[in-house]
Amino acid sequence: MGHGEKSVINLLCSGLELYDDEMLAIRWHMGAWGINMNSYEDQRCYDAARTLYPLCTIVGVVDGLAAGIMERTAEDVEQL
What we know:
This protein is mostly helical and 80 residues long. The protein has helices at residues 3-13, 20-27, 40-52, 54-70, 74-78.
C-alpha cells in the first residue's frame, strides 16, 4: 500500500467523509509516478480515475507544482 492509499484510510478512519473523486484524487496525487508499471490494473485504474474525475488531474498537477516550485528555497533557485 502506498502513501496515497494510507492517506485516504487515515482520513476515513478519523471520521472525515470523502466523495469518490476526493478519495481518488488523494490516492492518485502522485500522478503517473504513483503507478506500479508492472501492474496493468494500476494503469487502468489511474486512467479511469483521470477520465471520470478531473479533480485527479488537478490535484496531481498541483502536487507537482508544490514539489517542483513552491518547496524550493532561495538557495536552490540561485544554484540553477
